[in-house]
Write a structure and sequence with these properties.
With about 120 residues, this protein is an alpha/beta fold. The protein is built from 4 helices and 5 strands. It has helices spanning about 1-20, 45-50, 90-100, 110-115, and strands at about 25, 40, 60, 80-85, 105-110.
């Protein structure tokens, strides 16, 4: 009986640990159909957002002092996709949202620059 209990505890630990792993996907793989039961958040500044953004994205500026409060009342069970210009702010926002209790936060790697490259 004891080996079965140890196995159960080990499996429960692994499942709990896997739920805390950050999830990432390339922004180029994102599709609007993924928003059926999800939220898309652009964490760039309002000025960056105004220059162009993904369809159906809500702008919540990572640098805003009230960043966390702007998620009050949002369903923490829904998947949240986050992106920024290149990926740094969205990684930080992903960790913040996880700490606020959001269970499934996906960082769209590469950021807006990957889908809308600027001609140099």
């Amino acid at each position: 009986m004891r080996p079965l209990f140890v196995l159960f505890v080990f499996l429960a630990f692994q499942v709990g640990r896997s739920q805390k792993v950050s999830e990432n996907m390339p922004i180029t793989a994102f599709e609007q159909e993924m928003l059926k039961d999800a939220i898309l958040i652009d964490v760039r500044t309002p000025g960056e957002y105004a220059e162009g953004h993904l369809e159906n994205a809500q702008n919540i500026d990572w640098y805003d002092a009230n960043f966390a409060q702007q998620f009050d009342g949002m369903d923490k069970q829904r998947t949240v996709y986050v992106y920024c210009r290149s990926g740094r702010r969205s990684r930080e926002a992903q960790e913040k949202l996880k700490s606020l209790g959001f269970g499934h936060v996906v960082n769209l790697e590469g950021g807006y620059d990957a889908v809308n490259p600027i001609d140099k």
